[in-house]
Amino acid sequence: MARIKTEKDVSRRDIIVKAAAELFKEKGYKAASMRDLAEQVGVEAASLYNHIKSKTELLHDVCFNVANRFFDHINELEASPTSTLEKIEALIRFHIRQMIENYEEVLVSDREWKHLSEPYLSNFHNQRRNYRKRFAGLIQKGVDEKQIKNIDPSTSVLIILHAITGIDSWHRSVKRISAEELEENMVTLFVEGMKK
C-alpha cells in the first residue's frame, strides 16, 4: 500500500489538507469525494481515515487555517506603530500575497465556507464579519485622520476583497504579468486611489 510522501516540517495531515483544498477548488466541496482525494494523494481511501475523520473536518481545517492567518496578521498590524495608511497597505499586500501563494486554500475558504457544519458555520461567518469590520475600522481611522478620502469603509472593504479574489483569473491566464507586478498594480490602484 502506498504511503503519503512528506517533506521536512510537513505532516501527512498537512499534505492531505492542501490536496483537499486543491480538490475543493477544482470540483467544489459538494462534488469532491474522499475517493477523489485519495487518488490525488496517491493512497487508498481507507488510509485517509488514519489521518482525518471526514471531508467536513478537511473543510473546517482549510477555512480556519486561512482565517487564523488573516487574524494573526491584522492583530500584528493593529499593534504596530506604523501609520494607518501603512497598515492598510500592508493588509492589502498580505491579502494579495495570500491569494497568490496560498491560492487554493484562500479561494476555498472564501467560496466553500457555507458548507461548514454547525457550530463552525456560525463561528466562521462571525469571524468573517468581524474581520471585515476591523478592516473597515482601519479605513475609517484613515478617513478620520485625513489620510484617506471621505469614502464608505464597508463598501471599500467589499470592493478591495472582491477585486483581490479576482486574482483567480490571473492564475488561469496564459499570458500574465509577474506576481510582483500584479501586487504593485493592485496596491497602486487601491492605496493611491484612497489617499487624500
Notable traits:
Tetracycline Repressor, domain 2, 196 residues, elongated, 2 domains, mainly alpha, 71% helix, Arc Repressor Mutant, subunit A, 10 helices
Q: Could you describe the 3D structure shown?
A:
The protein is an all-alpha fold. The chain folds into two domains: about 10-50, Arc Repressor Mutant, subunit A (Orthogonal Bundle), CATH 1.10.10; about 55-195, Tetracycline Repressor, domain 2. It has helices spanning about 10-25, 35-40, 45-50, 55-80, 85-100, 105-110, 120-145, 155-165, 165-170, 180-195. It starts with 11 loop residues before the first helix and ends with a helix. The relative contact order is 0.11.
Give a nutshell description of this structure.
Helix content is 71%, strand content 0%. The chain has helices at residues 12-27, 34-41, 45-48, 55-79, 84-101, 103-111, 120-144, 153-165, 167-172, 179-194.
CATH architecture of the largest domain: Orthogonal Bundle
Mean pLDDT level: 91
What is the string of helix and strand elements? HHHHHHHHHH
- Unreliable stretches (pLDDT < 50, length at least 5) are none
Number of domains: 2
Kindly estimate the percentage of residues that lie in beta strands according to DSSP: under 5%
The backbone outline, from C-alpha atoms, is: elongated
Q: What is the topological layout?
A:
Layout: H1 12-27, H2 34-41, H3 45-48, H4 55-79, H5 84-101, H6 103-111, H7 120-144, H8 153-165, H9 167-172, H10 179-194
Helix pairs in contact: 1-2, 1-4, 1-6, 4-5, 4-6, 4-7, 5-6, 5-7, 5-8, 5-10, 7-8
